[in-house]
Design goal:
This protein is of the alpha/beta class. It has helices at about 10-25, 55-65, 80-85, 85-105, 140-160, 185-195, 215-225, 250-255, 270-275, 285-290, 300-310, and strands at about 5, 30-35, 50, 70-75, 110-115, 115, 165, 165-170, 170-175, 200, 210-215, 240, 245, 265. The chain has two domains: about 5-170 and about 215-240, 3-Layer(aba) Sandwich (Rossmann fold); about 175-210 and about 245-280 and about 295-315, Alpha-Beta Complex (UDP-galactose 4-epimerase, domain 1). Helix content is about 40%, strand content about 15%. Helix 1 (about 10-25) links the parallel strand 1 (about 5) and strand 2. The strands form four sheets. A six-stranded parallel β-sheet has the order 3-2-1-4-5-7, with helices on both faces. The structure holds serine (SER). Serine binds near residues 79, 118, 171 and 183.
């Protein structure tokens, strides 16, 4: 029987993935885990367990005792937060991965999902339609940890047969839970401020083009990758995923179609440098060929969904 443990369940991806996995496989098959205490150990209509991914002993004995078959390991520090706390970011982003990879190597897990990011690319990477295989010289702590993680995933597959699957997520746009500490967060914040105040100050410059994706597409991609037949998964580092590429200016123009008085201003901070080192757009033809990936959300569709759903009482 499938028994999924999702570590980092309270984060931006985690909350939505828990909901969708429970819909697909039944609430009893999906256990949510994070470092926070949760009343009655319940979260989003199912079981919750408090786990610290840095506590190898605790995570390993939980996985073994509860006969977990799959782990989605989402606990991480994102790019902007990681720059402020490099030691902890490296520790958190790498140690948890080894714990889970080792559990699979020892035969306790059948499958692992581990997220990578467009942050694996760097200033020397070709910027437009960045290929799957290309120069990768990440210049952020987060990017370095993701690139190293990718190498280890591939290594564990090649040497120990660990069925680990991964996606290089673009910036993710969602309304259920707020993003925490990424460089692409502006593309979520903007909707709350547009709806609440009719204006927004972007911390990235108007022409900074980055690959982004609406969460519904990202969740579907994740589950499709995990459910694809093993022989279709040819890449064990991490798959490029394209999504929609836009700049703060293009996004604000699309928002103006709904809120005509909306105004955007620009005041760049340290995140600009991170954004400048990342691609403008991504070539995801390997995901398309190997496991039939097709995105559904255009910029227009994503903007109207976001404006309809963001809850301004959250900010
Ligand atoms: N959205 C992430 C960030 O900005 C990239 O993976 O850090």
């Amino acid at each position: 029987m499938k028994k999924i443990l999702l570590i980092g369940a309270c984060g931006q991806i985690g909350t939505e993935l828990v909901i969708e996995l429970r819909k697909r496989f039944g609430a009893q098959c999906v256990i949510a885990a994070d470092v926070h205490d949760m009343e009655n150990n319940q979260f989003l209509g199912g079981e919750y367990t408090k786990l610290d991914v840095l506590n190898k002993e605790q995570v390993s004995s939980y996985v073994i005792k509860n006969k977990i078959t799959e782990v989605y390991l989402l606990a991480a520090l994102l790019s902007a937060t990681a720059e402020k706390n490099p030691d902890f970011a490296w520790k958190l982003n790498m140690e948890g991965l080894f714990t889970i990879l080792d559990l699979a190597k020892e035969g306790y897990l059948k499958k692992i999902f581990w997220p990578s990011s467009i942050a694996v690319f760097g200033p020397t990477t070709p910027k437009d339609l960045t290929p799957q295989y290309t120069i990768m010289e990440p210049s952020t702590v987060y990017g370095i940890s993701k690139q190293a993680g990718e190498r280890w995933c591939e290594y564990y597959f090649n040497n120990f047969g660990v069925d680990v699957r991964s996606i290089r997520y673009p910036g993710l746009i969602s309304y259920t839970s707020l993003p925490g500490g990424g460089t692409t967060d502006y593309a979520v914040d903007i909707f709350y401020h547009a709806k609440k105040e009719g204006k927004y100050t972007s911390f990235l410059s108007e022409n900074t083009k980055l690959p982004m994706m609406f969460m519904e597409d990202a969740i579907r991609a994740t589950i499709e990758l995990m459910e694809a037949p093993i022989e279709n998964i040819k890449i064990r580092s991490s798959y490029n995923l394209g999504g929609i590429s836009f700049t703060p200016k293009t996004l604000s123009e699309e928002i103006k179609k709904h809120i005509s008085e909306f105004e955007i201003t620009y005041n760049q901070d340290f995140r600009q440098k991170i954004a400048d080192s990342w691609p403008n757009s991504i070539d995801d033809s390997f995901a398309k060929n190997d496991w039939n990936w097709r995105e559904q959300f255009t910029l227009e569709k994503m903007v109207s969904e976001m404006l309809r759903h963001v809850d301004i009482s959250k900010i």
